[in-house]
Write a structure and sequence with these properties.
The protein is about 15% helix and about 40% strand. It is mainly β.
Length: about 140
């Protein structure tokens, strides 16, 4: 499958998500990889030496926007970082929160960059990150 097909299959507006049965507010789980090493200390993060599998749980999510915007050179192949968070941030000030008349003290507007021009934006009450341990495949003889 080339990236143009992937882009058409997974680039959803909020209204399309709602038409597929998504409901807001709700808790949604994003299953992604993380590009940076997760540390328990406050030291500077480094590029991960192995995949960092995460469940990112958006608690009481009321708005979600998934955008896969291919560059012209990516149309025939899947970008290397698709499905991997290469950056994330809290959007402040948030036009979404302002338009919905929501308090930035009670709501988060989050932006996840997932390589190239691809991103996920969400408005939720809170965020929970669970690091998943990749289980080795069982081998049988």
């Amino acid at each position: 499958m080339n990236f143009e097909e992937i882009w058409q299959q997974y680039d959803f507006t909020e209204s399309e998500l709602l038409s597929m049965g998504w409901q807001f507010p709700y808790d949604y789980v994003l299953n992604l990889n993380y590009y940076w090493q997760l540390n328990s200390t406050n030291s500077t993060s480094e590029v991960a030496t192995n995949d960092q599998f995460l469940n990112i749980i958006l608690k009481t999510c009321i708005r979600l926007d998934v955008q896969l915007n291919p560059n012209s050179d990516e149309l025939n192949e899947k970008p290397a970082n698709l499905g991997t968070i290469v950056g994330w941030e809290q959007v402040t000030p948030s036009p979404w929160l302002e338009n919905l008349s929501l308090s930035p003290n009670e709501w988060l507007h989050l932006l996840f960059e997932i390589g190239g021009n691809n991103k996920i934006e969400a408005v939720c009450r809170s965020l929970v990150v669970e690091q998943l341990v990749k289980q080795p495949l069982a081998l049988s003889s």
